[in-house]
Amino acid sequence: MPTQPHDTSAAEKAGLHPRNRHHGRYDFAALVRSSPALAAFVAPTAQGAEASVDFTDPAAVKALNQALLKHFYHVQLWDIPAGYLAPPIPGRADYVHYLADLLAETNGGPVPTGKRVRVLDVGVGANCIYPIIGHHEYGWRFVGSDADPVAVRVAKQIVAGNPGLAGAIEVRLQPSSADIFSGVVKANELFDLTMCNPPFHASQAEAEAANRRKNQNLGTGKVAPNFGGQSHELWYEGGEATFTWRMAEESALQRHNCLWFSTLISKKETLPGLYKTLQKRGAADVRTIGMSQGQKVSRLVAWTFLDAEQREQWRQKRWPAGPAGA
Known about the structure:
Rossmann fold; 326 residues; alpha/beta; two-stranded antiparallel ribbon
């Protein structure tokens, strides 16, 4: 029988996940040593306090991300086209670590690691951030899907340019911008996790209005890159609620192909409709996990159609005792 959604968001402590590498302020001196190109963007703040970068400058944010990826994740070559989403890496890492906790629970304690664990990143983007972090931290293999041919091409270039990612990340073009899993997941293909950072807004006009509000709050006329992105990264007809409804519906058709499905949710108002759809489609367990980075609070929803006995059978088949990389 389906269970009621299990909401742990209120119980989560403020701050990043304990295993997240990005606690505290950025150590710009260490980052510059790893990536000297960042030095051109580091300067004292207006208050004359600690050094920082101008987060409204796309070049500065890209240089910071390049430095973080070199310093913490050993990625030497990383670049994205102008106008594409430059994600805040600490928050992206949190999502990966909380999903690892879900697998650990299924595994009776330790996080399953190595190439036996396969993850589908829906909407991998040109930045390929989730696969980079997940592979480095846990050795997982990833499939990243995206409906944007440019994003697919750039993500493939990132993988090809870094030998440490070879054989660990496959990037696939989603042939239909309306579909989630259909057209990407192959017959009888198994994934231990799926993850997604869905478009928030219902239209391009709504996305542009949100950008204007955020930049007004920053007191600048610039478009902050962390608020930017291509249209498909920011909006979907019907918004987050429609996108996640479709994801839930399609996940039911893949119920035996995946252990845990998941998505980030930016709007609390999206949750009731998603819960209703998952209950209707027979999800056996639904989790809502709160995450916090500074003033930003977000949440992820994860669900499975497998009951406890089926999850144990999955564990025995997918992660038998043995070397983690076997």
